[in-house]
Design brief:
With about 260 residues, the chain is mainly alpha-helical. It folds into two domains: about 10-35 and about 180-259, no CATH class; about 35-165, Helix Hairpins (Orthogonal Bundle). The protein is built from six helices and four strands; from the N terminus they run ααααββαββα. It has a four-stranded mixed β-sheet. Strand 1 and strand 2 (about 210) form a beta hairpin. Helix 1 crosses helix 6 (about 245-259). The longest helix is centred in the middle third of the chain and has 84 residues, at about 95-180.
Length: about 260
């Protein structure tokens, strides 16, 4: 004969829902401890990567200008060799026309040398400017990398302290969800996604639902304390539990969190 499934009372459902809330709230606390650190680390990593990319481009530009200078120096050497050759040829010309033609070639090569030297001076000035930028960028990289390393250490320390606890709590949260009927879990998840601080199940405090200023009528408060049905706050939609139940479950769950 099949074993009859145990009937779960409304009070047990409320306790399970509040326990689930306590576990999820603790997970939220752990994640809030990290704050914006993961995003800060990501932004700093992107910034450092961008600066390093810029640094590589500047260094490549300097290398390209160095090669341009070498090329111009080679051109100057070729022009000087050509001028020497033409000067020697002038010594054995047969007429003025040949002499003048060689003179024009010598003059042209002289102009080429002047232009090449002008370009070399320009390239040197550009290299000097880019080297200044390289030093500035290296200083920026150093500063941002130090800041990134500090933030990573900070994040790693927090992760080291909380990662194991967080994973255990996530497993506990999933277990609670499996033990609570599906419609209630769906309602809980829906409410939690819409309300401030992710609080979907709250106790009555000073005649109002936790975190609210709207007073709950005495008759409704009595019904909540009776734990015979699941009641939601008409203003926030949160599931309500009485203060005594909340304190009992907080105390019970606190011992589990410390374990």
């Amino acid at each position: 004969m099949a074993k009859k499934k145990k009937e779960v009372s409304t009070e047990e459902k409320l306790r399970s829902l509040f326990d689930l809330q306590l576990v999820d709230s603790r997970i939220d606390e752990i994640r809030n401890m990290r704050g914006e650190l993961p995003l800060e680390v990501e932004d700093l990593e992107d910034e450092v990567a961008g600066l390093n990319k810029r640094l590589k481009k500047l260094e490549a530009d300097v290398e390209a200008k160095d090669n341009d200078i070498k090329s111009k120096k080679h051109s100057i050497a070729e022009s000087e060799d050509t001028m020497k050759k033409y000067n020697k040829q002038q010594e054995s010309v047969r007429n003025n026309r040949e002499y003048n033609a060689l003179s024009k070639e010598i003059e042209y090569q002289g102009l080429e040398i002047q232009l090449a030297k002008k370009h070399i001076d320009e390239y040197k000035a550009q290299i000097e400017h880019k080297n200044e930028k390289i030093e500035e960028t290296k200083e920026k990289v150093k500063g941002r990398q130090e800041h990134l390393d500090h933030k990573k250490d900070e994040l790693d320390e927090i992760l080291k302290e909380t990662e194991k606890e967080e994973q255990n709590l996530i497993k506990k949260s999933e277990k609670f969800k499996k033990d609570i009927e599906e419609r209630l879990v769906k309602a809980y998840v829906r409410i939690r996604s819409k309300v401030k601080n992710g609080l979907a199940v709250v106790p009555i405090e000073r005649g109002a639902s936790g975190g609210s200023f709207f007073t709950i009528p005495p008759q409704v408060q009595m019904e909540i304390a009776g734990r015979q049905k699941i009641i939601t706050d008409e203003h926030s939609g949160r599931i309500l539990v009485d203060r005594a139940l909340a304190e009992e479950e907080r105390e019970r769950m606190e011992s589990q969190f410390k374990a």
